[in-house]
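Quick question, first post here. What does this chain look like in 3D?
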Amino acid sequence: MLLFSLLAIVAITVAALMWWAIREPGGRPLAYVLIALMLVPLPAAAGALDTFIAAASPGIIDLIGLALTGIIGWAAAAARRKWGIEIEARYREALHSALLTGAQLAMKHELTGKAAIDLILRYIKQSVPDAIGSLKPSPEVLTDLAKAKLEQVAQAKVKEATGAAVDALTGALRKAGLPAT
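> Answer (accepted):
Ran it through. Tokens below.
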């Protein structure tokens, strides 16, 4: 047990020194010297070292347990932050996609004003209830988002219709033998 404790302490210390050497390039020579001294114990200090380790083992094991608990807690919090943000981004993306689809559906049915907004809101509540439940946007925010998406789709329709009309006019001018510019 004593040998295992000593090896665990040496391994943790070597790992900490390597981490320090990577993060602080100026400390690399000192870290390498300390690692070498730890891995090659001096014969004269062997008896004193054994006595010290025997006396300090219970406390060192407690410290190792405390350090591992802290590391696990930190890693769990970091994972929760990382994956929580990714899930929220997916919910936002799904909500905006549903808003766009609802606005396109309202334009297809030639709805305007409150009827179009109501259709969009019904559509998103049916298609992405998890996103709405997780993000918890207020009804006012959802209404504003629906209006914005409806305007975006309407502008795209106008641009598409204008482009088609210009193309038709250009084709008619060419057929008539007139310059299209």
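The chain has a mean pLDDT of 78.
The chain has six helices and no strands.
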